[in-house]
Amino acid sequence: MSFIKKFVGDKAFYKMTLTVAVPIMIQNFITNFVSMLDNLMVGSLGTEQMSGVSIVNQLIFVFGLAVFGALSGAGIFTAQFYGKNDNDGIRYTLRYKLIVSVLIFLVALGVFLLFDDNLISLYLHESDSSDDIPLTLSYAKDYLKVILWGLLPFCIAQIFSSTLRETGETVAPMVAGFIAVVSNCAFNWVLIFGKLGFPALGVVGAAIATVISRYVECGIILFYVAKNKHRFTYFKGAFKSFSMPKKVFKDITFKGMPLLFNEFFWSLGMSLLSMAYSLYGISVVAGYSISSTVMNLANIAFISLGSSIGIIVGKQLGANKFKEAVDTDRKLITFSAFLSAIIGIFVFLIGDKIPLLYNTTEETKELAGYFIKVCSLFIPVHSFANATYFTIRSGGKTLITFLMDSVFIMCVSVPIAFSLYYVFHLPIWYTFPFVQCIDIIKVIIGIILVKKKVWLNNIVSE
User: Fold this and answer.
1) 40, burial (CB in 10 Å: exposed 0-12, middle 13-18, buried 19+)
2) Structural contact between residues 65 and 444, judged by C-beta atoms closer than 8 angstroms
3) Contact 394, 313 (CB under 8 A)
4) Of 168, 166, 163, 182, nearest in space to 222 by CA
5) Cβ neighbours around 149 below 10 Å, total
């Protein structure tokens, strides 16, 4: 009974947890489910089209995670300022988020416009057909040119949505995300295939649909905030100036910037892993794209619970409820791992059936099914790593998370993946599971750090 009491919460605990986590889960589920539908629609055009779009999405993924990291760094302070009932502090974090996000947007725009060919070509290697590479490059460039128009509204939407979530308002971002992804799916159907009198634009149509959905989400969030400004008083006057106390700016920068660099280098590491897998040919690129889309859907539970840990535990730390924070965190990690194990079993059982829905080569379908089954076995591993990451981050230990996350993938996972191809000449069937196994080391490190309570800090106390 003492063991159960230590690791399992009561009804009130799970009600509190699910109140925060379920809206995030629903939003992530809708987003990733529609992404899978997008992937299916683009995949119906052909392997080259799907591979081209997948490559660009890997590049945009790095941008998106850099924005997420910048917002998360300031968001640690937002959650703790909220726990402290400090509206001025929340306004400072809003200003910080806007400044950093715009800077990231400008840098990304310049890089994508100047180096589009070079970046895309990093993922294109020898394949069965000599026409595959130039055709895939052409589709990727067409897609990228359009998708850039959606980067700025994405930044603005994330600034406001993240702040709402960090202050306990998770439903509005969920609704905005739902409407956005539904509009994305609808416009995809219309513009990719030329329905309702519109021309069939293929991958360009898919890009236009994504851009439209970015503006839809941004518009809904801004409208909601404006309409409910009496409730969210911390938004009032937040952008009348961009001044903030030097101490706040310094604290967010020193504690938050490691998160920006962490997300950037982690996403870069994931893109490099994808690049390592692309050495095996375009069929592997397409298969990996399918499996990644499916696993993004399967990983929703533990990713959403990780975000919930950051919000719930961060608020408790800001209110100096340290004993309660330890108890809450332990039960949240247990819940996340248990839920992930169930999901992992389910995905393993159906993993090889999902690729059959795609209009692509048999080799690609076989690879995708294999990747999905391998990843399903490691869902609990990634769940533990994710939960410990958010725990350590909630207490402002962002340098530690930087080392155990992005430094780990860049200095361990990526070199091993490339060496398995270039040095040991292993086929993808052995390389892929070997790289997945490496994350077990991260789990061990994370559990040790959580048990040592290095994260138990109030970073907004005077």
Assistant:
1) middle
2) no
3) yes
4) 163
5) 15
DSSP string over 425-450: ---HHHHHHHHHHTHHHHHHHHHHHH
Q: What pLDDT, on a 0 to 100 scale, did the predictor assign at position 130? A: 44
Whole-number Å distance between alpha carbons of 245 and 247: 5
Q: Which of 368, 362, 289, 286 is nearest to 48 (CA)?
A: 286
Q: For position 128, what pLDDT does the model report?
A: 46
Q: Would you list the domain boundaries of the chain?
A: 2-451
DSSP string, 25-39: HHHHHHHHHHHHHHH
Label residue 356 by pLDDT band (50, 70, 90).
Answer: confident
Look up residue 293 and give its two tokens: 């889309």
CA of 373: how far to CAs of 47, 202, 311, 364, 429, in Å? 21, 30, 32, 14, 12
CA atoms within 13 A on the CB side of 160: 28
| Ramachandran region, residue 321 (left: φ > 0; alpha: ψ -120 to 50; beta: rest) | beta
Treating both helix axes as pointing N-terminal to C-terminal, what angle do 322-350 and 362-377 enclose, rounded to 10 degrees?
Answer: 150
Paired tokens of 186: 């609808």
Can you list the alpha helix ranges (DSSP code H) found in 231-361?
A: 246-278, 282-298, 300-318, 322-350
Rounded CA-CA distance 364/358 in Å is 9
The better pLDDT of the pair 200, 283 is held by 200
Distance from C-alpha of 114 to C-alpha of 259, rounded to nearest angstrom? 27
Residues 6+ apart with CB under 8 A from 171: 23
For 262, 404, 407, 418, the CA distances from 411, given in Å and listed in that order, are 13, 10, 6, 12
Residue 31 — pLDDT band, cuts 50, 70, 90?
A: low
Place of tokens 């306004």: 91
